[in-house]
C-alpha cells in the first residue's frame, strides 16, 4: 500500500512518518482487506494539531477520519482510532462487498463549488450574493460521483464520516442522495422521473378535417 504523509505549513519529521506508515498499514491491512493507497495530512488550527487520514480500498470505497489534539502524535492517534472503529464496524460488509465487486466502483466527473453564505460581505458582491440573487461562488474544484447501490452509498457515507453523499444509483442510473437525519436514521432521496406529456394532435373542424 502506498502511503503519503505530508504537512500543511508544518514540518513532518522522519520519526513521525515512520510511525504513521507502520500504524496505518497495520490497521488498514487488518480491517480493510485490500487497501491500495493512503494519504495522511497534518495541519495546525490555532493551538491544535489536526490530522486527516484517507484510505482508498481496491473496490473504490474510501475511508476517512480526522483527529485534533495539542500534540501531533495524539492528533494522529485520535484519527487512526476513529478510522479503526469505522473499519471494524463494517469489516464483514467490506469483505462481502469485495467478493461481489470484481471491478472497482465507477465514478463520474463533476464540478464542486464553494458558495459564500448569505450575509457575508465581500468586495464584489453585497451580502454574499451574485447578480440575480444567487450565492456568490468563491471556489470551484473537480470531484467524482461514485456509481453505487443504496446499501453501498450508506456504507461509504459512514466510512467517510460525512453527513451527506451524492451518488449515481446503479439501479436506474439516477442521481440519488443519502444523508444522516437528526433522529439518527438515514434519509434517502430518489428523484422520480417526470412523466412526459404527449400532446394531442391538432384537429381542424368538428370532424378533424380542414
Fold blueprint:
Elements: E1 2-7, H1 14-31, E2 35-45, E3 48-57, E4 62-69, H2 72-89, H3 91-100, E5 107-115, E6 137-148, H4 150-160, E7 164-169, E8 175-180, E9 186-189
Parallel strand pairs: 1-2, 6-7
Antiparallel strand pairs: 2-3, 3-4, 5-6, 7-8, 8-9
Helix pairs in contact: 1-2
Q: What class do helices, strands and sheet pairing give?
A: alpha+beta
Rg value: 23 Å
Assign the CATH class of the largest domain: Alpha Beta
CATH superfamily of the largest domain: Ribosome hibernation promotion factor-like
What kind of assembly state do the chains in view correspond to?
single chain
* DSSP helical segment count: 4
Task: Classify the helix fraction into a percent range.
Answer: 25-40%
Share of residues in strands = 25-35%
Task: Write down the overall mean pLDDT.
Answer: 86
Shape: globular
Number of strands: 9
CATH architecture of the largest domain: 2-Layer Sandwich
- Low-pLDDT stretches are none
Describe the sheet with the most strands. 5 strands, mixed
Number of domains: 3
CATH-assigned fold name of the largest domain: Double Stranded RNA Binding Domain
Strand order of the largest sheet: 5-6-7-8-9
From the N-terminal CA to the C-terminal CA, the straight-line distance is: 76 Å
Encode the helix/strand succession as letters. Answer: EHEEEHHEEHEEE
Domain Sigma 54 modulation/S30EA ribosomal protein C-terminal: 135-187
GO biological process, one term: negative regulation of translational elongation
Keywords: Coiled coil, Cytoplasm, Ribonucleoprotein, Ribosomal protein, Translation regulation
Family: Belongs to the HPF/YfiA ribosome-associated protein family. Long HPF subfamily.
